[in-house]
Amino acid sequence: MRKKWTMEQILLGQNNRAKQAGTRHDLTMEQWLETLEYFDHKCAYCGGEYQVIEHYLPIYKAGTTVSNCVPACLHCNIMKDKQGHDLSFYQNENVIRFIAGKGVNISFHVHKYEALKKDYVILYCEGCGSRLDVPGLSIDDAHAYIDQYFSNTGYAYIA
Predict the structure, then answer these.
(1) Separation between Cα atoms, residue 46 and residue 72, nearest integer Å
(2) Would you say 145 and 135 are in contact if contact means Cβ atoms under 8 Å apart?
């Protein structure tokens, strides 16, 4: 049988994770309860049942703070951090408004991949230097591939 953690223990654990990562770790219980109230004790992304403390930006970048933590369901928590970093979750207006209300402005880098032909196709984002090697992809099919799999990908960061 799995142990049921108290909210205090969960919060302490998240603050300890940020401390181990060398980032801010000052989210208080009072701040977390205010955050839960703001989101009506529901997932900040889909409005479903809140299950976890979600770090909007990765814990190693922004820590466990009132401006970086929101409630989330397990599904949104997992989907937000999928490979490729689809920005749809990061661009949630309600979450951005909450974070901005805490004095933090979020900006986005949206990858603009172009296909380069070498011995195989390379997708290259000139804005950040991200490079993806795609063996087997023809240069003629590259734009459709980019549109299908990499539209609205990139990363969020504190402006």
Answers:
(1) 8
(2) no
